[in-house]
Amino acid sequence: MKLAPEIRDRLARMLHLRTGDLGPGDPIPEPLVSASIYQLPDEPRPDRTYGRTANPTVQAVEARLAILEDAPTKLFASGMAAYSALFHATLKAGDRLLLLSDGYYSVRHYLDQFLSGFGVELVTCPAKEFAEKSLDGFRLAVIESPTNPRLDIIDIAAAATRAREAGCLLAVDNSVCTPVLQQPLDLGADIVLAADTKATSGHSDVLTGHVSSRDEELMARVHSARTLAGGIAGPFEAWLMLRGLETLDVRLQRMCANAESVAEILASHPAVGEFLYPDGTHPQMAHPGTLIGATFADKPTAERFIELTELFVPTTSFGGVHSAADRRARWGDDVPEGFLRLSIGCEPTEVLVEAVRGALDRL
């Protein structure tokens, strides 16, 4: 995986953000500060009043993510908390919102069950039709690229141009790629958000998410929405994420290499029907990524593949160090019963490849 020079520079600066200001005897790793209250002078600092507003460990994560995104960033208790703050910061009664009909299902459910009752009109379209969908009259459009779970690609730069012409804000869910593999803001998007529960933290032991934007007024509203609704991440979760950020580049290098090798086997095996994996011709992505879609004959065959492989953990979510398989039809996604979303992890490449090949041959 070859990264652009500016991304390599951001990764290095992120890793050494703390080391440049250390004094003699200071700890190299970021300390965990679990405080929810602070000593208040007559005129307290805005970020040192109460833990729902800010926390030093949370701010340490935000500072590192801000380097990777090259934009002000706020950390949240989950990816969905990040979505919630974005919606509250940008939408009001009478506004129209465009979502993908084949993107992450929880976002659509949240709009259907809650925001629709406050007068926000939700419109959806499939990812493959987004390029032709008029953005006129929309306040906000939220896209994924690649989409979850079918890994369709949307041209972010083209979408950003269309959104500006229509007076519509464009937000990109970058959970699949992380800021290492794709930079939506550099491509013209107004907002990027992500579930850092996935590859950014990477160890499947923490729920976090973030919102980034170069629009300072918008980010002030995002921060206010987080403070008032209480969506800030906990200090311990933020501290765990700091560890994940320090290994993000190394983990992605292994995961992407593994994904390439596994994709090559799945693409040509007769046990696999529809095979989904970005083909690497999309310049907005530094690499096709770590997710693969594979459709087997039916539900029992898909489940049998997971069992035979042994190295795929049957679980939802993705981006962890363990390879994982999720039969997405169970969640209501518009995919066949035998469709698996495979998240490729950090196992030794040769061992993982042999496990996949052996399972396919035994089906």
Query: Structural class, from helix and strand content?
Result: alpha/beta
Spell out the CATH superfamily of the largest domain: Type I PLP-dependent aspartate aminotransferase-like (Major domain)
- Number of helices, where a helix is a run of at least 4 consecutive DSSP H or I residues: 11
Q: What string gives the helices and strands in order?
A: HHEHEHEEHEHEEHHHEEHEEEH
User: Which CATH architecture of the largest domain would you pick?
Assistant: 3-Layer(aba) Sandwich
Mean of all residue-level pLDDT scores: 96
Which outline best applies? globular
Share of residues in helices: 25-40%
> What is Rg?
21 Å
The percentage of residues in β strands lies in 5-15%
Report low-confidence residues grouped into runs of 5 or more. none
Any idea of the CATH class of the largest domain? Alpha Beta
Strand order of the largest sheet: 1-7-6-5-4-2-3
**What is the first-to-last residue Cα distance?**
32 Å
Number of strands: 12
Q: Main β-sheet: number of strands, strand sense, barrel status?
A: 7 strands, mixed
